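Ticket #4471: structure output looks truncated?

Reporter: J.K.
Steps to reproduce: submitted the chain below (155 residues) through the standard prediction queue, then opened the result file.
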Amino acid sequence: MLRSADGAWQTPVAGLLRPGGLAAHEVIVSIEVRRLSPGEGWGFRELSRPGAYAFPLVTVAATVRLAADGTVADLHAAVTGAAPAPYALGDAARDLTGAEPGDDWADAVAERLATRADPADDQHASAAYRRRMVGHLARAAVMDARQRAMQKAGT
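Returned output as attached by the reporter:
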């Protein structure tokens, strides 16, 4: 839920995943997260500077839902810290569903998320380093999500 001097309203997260998605006078006051369904798992990875008490350099979050046959029924992933605004895998995940969630699949997810990265060099990390880390963290996050989905499905 968002709030400003004009009132409060709900908006989908996708609306916030773009530059200007949250206006300067708006604040996020609550977030509703749905429960994971059977056969669905989550993964989250972040890269922070050692000893830093600040925002992480890059984060990747993912959910994977497995079909009864063990293939990927649904996939969602999002990245922060690697572009001017957070971004999601979105439609780029469409042809990754229906696949066996193995190493090649995880590599494809990671590559698609890294390709969409548009980081800038700053005092904390180079753009090239952030882009590489998106791929590394994305692969780990989707494999964690897959593992949790398999545990929930009892496979």
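Triage note (M.O.): checked the attachment and the full token line is present. The mean pLDDT is 90.
Status: closed, working as intended.
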